[in-house]
Design a protein that fits this description.
Elements (H helix, E strand, L loop, with lengths): L15 H9 L4 H14 L15
Helix pairs in contact: 1-2
């Protein structure tokens, strides 16, 4: 039996690399969640919009 650890078959959940892989895979729900979040952040009509906060002097 192998030692427990992160990643494949370790039984200790996901690593940050697993999360990134999931969010980059169009066949994964995490991908769609990430794209929705990205759209929300770019939409000035959305309350979560994080656009240009510079003051016009």
């Amino acid at each position: 039996m192998g030692r427990g650890g992160g990643g494949h078959g370790g039984g200790h959940g996901h690593s940050s690399n697993d999360d990134r892989s999931n969010s980059m895979n169009p066949n994964n729900d995490a991908y769609h969640d990430a794209m929705n979040n990205h759209s929300d952040q770019l939409n000035p009509n959305n309350e979560r919009y994080e656009g240009d906060d510079d003051d016009d002097d």
